[in-house]
Write a structure and sequence with these properties.
Layout: H1 8-25, H2 32-39, H3 43-49, H4 53-73, H5 81-98, H6 100-106, H7 120-123, H8 130-142, H9 151-170, H10 178-193, H11 198-205
Helix pairs in contact: 1-2, 1-4, 1-6, 2-3, 4-5, 4-6, 5-6, 5-8, 5-9, 8-9, 9-10, 10-11
Length: about 220
């Protein structure tokens, strides 16, 4: 007799399989049978881990933000807030490359249809990951690296720019040299527009790669 008790690996397979279905085929593809087949489990296994298909779709979004938050949390704080912001940008990109389907679902690039959260509080549930970027910009202002301004407004500009770059990067539009050719100059130009010195900014983010979250 098949054991349908909750198993962590099955739960992860269900989340990643559901994300693939949503990102590649749309919400109509996220059915009980398809979700079970993607995860190589039974339909009862889906209900063991998630109460409904809507709960599964909601958990996909939550999982995406949890993985992003975990990588952002690994970026250490140093005496160079600009380098720290570059580390957060690096972690953000790595997360999207490692979890492209989750990324597409959590930020709405994949249509969720009937599974899309309706309440504003539900749509904004992943905003806690934004706090790391706000804290980084706040420290950059305090260190005099950026001109005095609302850290949340600065962080929103950085997040918007990074999101645009990441969508194109994950889509394969920039190739292997996208980071030094596009991302680094984009960050330097944006931060310079926010009051940073271009030369010292470039020196702070020169080590930006996509191997692992920055550790300085």
């Amino acid at each position: 007799m098949t054991d349908h008790r909750a198993q962590p690996d099955v739960r992860v397979r269900l989340l990643e399989g559901a994300a693939r279905l949503l990102a590649e085929e749309g919400p109509a593809a996220l059915t009980l049978r398809r979700a079970a087949a993607e995860a190589e489990t039974s339909t009862m296994g889906v209900y063991t881990h998630f109460g409904s298909m809507a709960d599964l779709a909601d958990a996909v979004v939550a999982e995406g933000f949890a993985r992003l938050a975990a990588l952002l949390a690994e970026v250490p704080r140093s005496e160079d807030a600009i380098a720290d912001l570059a580390g957060l940008a690096q972690a953000y990109l790595i997360n999207a490359r490692q979890n492209p389907h989750l990324y597409a679902v959590m930020f709405g690039s994949a249509a969720l249809g009937k599974f899309r959260p309706q309440a504003a509080s539900e749509r904004g549930r992943g905003r806690y990951t934004f706090d790391e970027i706000v804290a980084g910009t706040q420290r950059a202002v305090a260190q005099g690296r950026l001109r005095p301004a609302d850290p949340a407004a600065i962080a929103a500009q950085l997040w918007t720019a990074m999101h645009g770059y990441v969508l194109l990067d994950v889509g394969g539009y920039f190739g292997a040299d996208g980071v030094p050719r596009v991302l680094v100059p984009m960050l330097v130009n944006l931060l310079a527009g926010l009051g940073a010195d271009p030369d010292s900014t470039l020196a702070s983010i020169t080590g930006l790669t996509t191997d692992e979250p920055a550790r300085h």
